[in-house]
Amino acid sequence: MGKDIREDIAWAQINKDVLKSLESPRRMYWIILFIAIAMIGVAVGSEIYQYQTGMGVSNKNNSHVWGLYIATFIFWIGMSHSGTLLSAILHLMHADWRKPIYRFAEAMTTFSLMTAGLFVLVHLGRLWMVYYVMPYPNERWVWPNFQSPLVWDMFAIATYLSSSVLFLYVGMIPDLAICRDNIRAGWRKKLYTVMSLGWEGTDRQWRNFRITYLTIACFLIPLAVSVHSIVASDFAMSNMPGWHVTSFPPYFVAGALYSGCAAIITLFIILRYVFKFEEYMTLPIMKKLVRLTFAIAMVWTYLNLIEFASVWYGHDQTAKDQLIFKATGPYAPFFWAMIFFGSILPLMLAFKRFQTHLPILFVVSILLNVGMWLERWMIIAPSFAHGHYPWTWDHDQWPSLVQWGIVFGSFGWFTLLFMVFCKVFPSVSMYEVKEMVYHRSLALKHKPAVKGEY
Amino acid sequence: MSQRHLLALFNDFDEAVAAITELRAANIKGFNMDDLILKSPIEHPEVEKVLGDKPVHVQWFTLIGACTGGLLAFFLVASAQANFFSQIKGGKPIVPLPPDFVLTYEMFILGGVFITILGFLICAGLPAKRSSLYSIKVSEDQIGILVKGDESAVAIFKTIFTKHKALEIQEEAGK
To answer: Does A80 reside within a domain?
Structure first.
């Protein structure tokens, strides 16, 4: 396997290359931005129509109370785990190949959570009532039900979002100082000056920075696991057939890491092309990322089988009927598509020739995420369609164009946020790439980090 | 005696470290090693060791923040639940510990993260005004050594820095 990065890249060149990505966008950037805004337009139009007309237009009914909105909410929450994986977990394991690619994965975490949060509002219908879930002193002395996983969700997601934003920001401070030092004037100069907090790279600053970053990384890992476990509890703690499964929390976490990794592959390829980051987002790094995705795909497959087996060999006949319904009923094509995209397709990633074939990886990574989105839909819809009581069964429900429009637009919203971020902030961590280059060049020369004994 | 500041820029860590070691060994009158600041474009714990043991206190903020966050969350939730005249429990525990633990845990982390950041800002002295002896080369590829000493020490500083191939030496009268 080739080198993750060239050891002879000059540090000044790293600054130059990354800062160049902040300059006037290429045409492709504008095309992506335009498509994203058009997609948001579809979602906004659908939401306005739903808001004014009522939730009926989404085709939700008494059986199907959640639909695509909550399936997509889980999908976006899952997507957010990628940043934590690449930043926090790999940081603790000293896997330095993460350095050129973790910044955009962290940004992905933040924007995925912001997108997920919108679905909580959208699915309410009466979105002006959202404050009911917040604990605040009120004249009626009514509090939210703190025993409900839905309230836990609010706490967990708010904690995860604010912690992720802070983690992203703190990790960016040294790079913001580089931007401040290199941008001549204008609003960017002001922005970077304020955001870099007067960073000068002193030993005192680096010493405290190192501990702070490590500490937040340590907090973020269990936080990420708890967030998706709590989202899993929204289902597992209910009595619905297909949901009341003990293995749901680890299954959700594995699915989250899986879809996050697949999304990183997609964005890796896009950024490499749009910002010409070939020197930093290299093929050997892609290879490692692909292998990681493959490993997580196999964990997800195993947990899927565990879930099916525990239902099949359990004593809950309704849950077993539900599983058979999923595999043979009207949702069967989607269920088997989920199995194909989630468990069979990733086997391709085990072949060396595909591990660095970017066009194929681009398509496969998108299909993996299609599979992961179907997984979330297959958790929700079949259980509502074929619940405990036959008189609640509704096998024919299909989400309306309004639901599809809002789901479609959420991808535009995420893309817009992400692309604007990449234009305003450095999407490759300059100081960490320098560290990577520095340490690898020392290793190449078999030289210690500091000469002599001190 | 009035004090002066000097910033020397070096091309690599080896030369900077050698200069610091010599400054320490020279035992210069009117110069305290604690007044030496190393500026670097990358995080380099090995080089920081040359400056001697300098403790970091951010972890204390973390501990206090996490414990306070967790306790506040538990007492907020428990006191809301204990308002049982408004929330009829039907024989169930008024303050159920297992579900409350979830929110306690989330706020434990939130408190920990927030106060860690606060601790970082305090301990790292941020936000700060950039010192006038600052070179943008430090954020690019050069290593800076900022020293403060009596006027009598300036000549020795310059000799040591020049000996170790300083690329540039900036000087400023101290306040």
So the answer is: yes
Alpha helices by DSSP H, A275-316: 283-312
Which tokens sit at A337? Answer: 């598509």
Smallest CA-to-CA distance from A438 within B45, B168, B105, B122 is with B45
Residues (pLDDT < 50) of chain A are 453-454
Nearest CA in chain A to B50: A454
Residues 6+ apart with CB under 8 A from A157: A77, A113, A116, A117, A120, A227
Residue of B nearest to A134 (CA): B77
A453 within a domain of the structure (yes/no): no
pLDDT digits (tens, 9 = 90+) for B108-126: 999 999 999 999 999 999 8
Task: Return the SS3 of A113.
Answer: helix
pLDDT tens by residue, B89-112: 677 788 889 889 999 999 999 999
What pLDDT, on the 0 to 100 scale, is given for residue A453? Answer: 45
Count of structural domains, chain A: 1
**Of A10, A1, A4, A2, nearest in space to A280 by CA:** A4
Question: How many interface pairs between A and B have CB atoms less than 8 angstroms apart?
Answer: 186
Residue numbers in B near A209 (CB within 8 A): 43, 120, 124
Which residues 187-216 of A are in CB contact (within 8 Å) with B?
197-212, 215-216
Q: Does A282 touch chain B (CB under 8 A)?
A: no
**Which of A94, A159, A429 to mutate to test binding with chain B, by most B CBs within 10 Å of its CB?**
A159
Q: pTM score, two decimals?
A: 0.92
Q: Which residues in chain B have Cβ-Cβ distances shorter than 8 Å to A135?
A: 76-77, 80
Chain A residues near residue B125 by CB distance under 8 angstroms: 204-205
CATH number at residue A168: 1.20.1630.10
Domain extent at residue A423: 28-392+402-436
ipTM of the complex: 0.92
Q: Is B2 on the interface with A (CB under 8 A)?
A: no
Between CA A329 and CA A382 the distance in angstroms is 9
Cβ atoms of A219 and B63 closer than 8 Å: no
Question: Domains, chain B, ranges and CATH?
Answer: 3-55+133-173 (3.30.70.120), 58-124 (no CATH)
Q: Residues A212-241, buried b or exposed e (16+ Cβ, 10 A)?
A: bbebbbbbbbebbbbbbbbbbbbbbbeebb
Query: Considering the domain boundaries, does residue A444 fall inside one?
Result: no
CA distance A101 to chain B (A): 17
- A171: nearest CA in chain B? B117
